[in-house]
Amino acid sequence: MDTAIAGAGAPDGWFGMDQRLRGLSPSATLAISERSAALKASGREVYRLGLGQSPFPVPECVREKLRSSAHEKDYLPVRGLERLRAAVAAYHARRHGIMRTGDDVLIGPGSKELMFILQMTVEGELLLPQPSWVSYEPQARLAGRRVHWIPTDREDGRRIDPVALRHCCEGLPRGPRILLLNYPNNPVGTTLGADRLKELAAVARHFGLLVLSDEIYGELNHRAGHVSIARYYPEGAIVSAGLSKWCGAGGWRLGTFSFPERLRSLLDAMTVVASETFTAVSAPVQFAATRAFDGGVEIDDYLDRSRAILQALGRAISARMRASGIAVDEPEGGFYLMPDFSAREKRLKLAGIRSGSDLCESVLQETGVAMLPGSCFGYPESDLSARIAYVDFDGAPALAAARKENGGALGAAFLDTHCGRVLKAVELLCDWFERF
Ligand code: GLU
Question: The pTM is what?
């Protein structure tokens, strides 16, 4: 899984490889997951903080719907099951105040695939906050698109700043541009609030940006306070969501795009590509997804408990890291943190650790903690940040026990019992750092 594509094709010249693939390797998230699994299989103790997948089981009512839909065997419409598209539109209206209909929704095999199809379909250069999730930039390269990174400030929780966005737009030649937002953020764990979103929307409107807003972690805002940028930029924001993160169903592969009516021609064009590629998402999964997006008491309760656990755990481990002198933001949503180890840069360098990759390799070898270097998220190799996904625990008993805690904040005893592996991993990471 770790071979980069050279670009020249087979050594004997039997076939050639498209030049757009030159230098690309398998996606870092999936590569670290497979590497961790292989190390584990070889008998090593590995703390799997590499791949970001939900630790929680799919809610029972959604699983039940999947079971009872097993007989659904026909191809569904390319855009998605009509009932599901209506449920997704209703969900966005209910949760985010976005007024769109089922006709504005496209269902795909994961939002990742829809993002790639968007990049294949629409013209324009891509604006990416630095850092950003691992696959946005490689997808742009595959689609032959130029990428412009927008620097963010560590003092500002590495949130995209409207002034930096404006500067970036002013410095570029005129032409179509796509801004890719993601909040709660992967890899940082911070999010964007209403004031910041209004300012970003004003800049986007001024420059006529197409905004792809990846809100896949929206339901995992730790305070249940997610706000969609589509509230403030309804005419230009596509909202990306799905089942993978909040519903614990990454492996089911179901993602959704919700388009402004004004972008119907783009939805139509993406439908053409979908029809020539994946055809339609698995039928039983689409039927089951209607239950998830319909929501209700059971789903709300599941989400309340998921958020409470992630919030308590994120706070505990970020505080532990800060106590060791590792700079890290206070988490606000999702299940990622991006600790910055540069406070000991000189001593790390003396020990031969000159890059984020060196750092992650050393941590993995010496402690068994798997994480991803900042370079996977658009930082230079020399950057000494790394991303951890604090998900190496069994979410089923944790959810069940969180119910018994009666909605109060979850304390140290709860975390020790149910999230012990993550606490242990962070302890090992801090011990490793303190040696320098
Ligand atoms: N979003 C997950 C992560 O950042 C992985 C999913 C994927 O790469 O397809 O770890």
Answer: 0.95
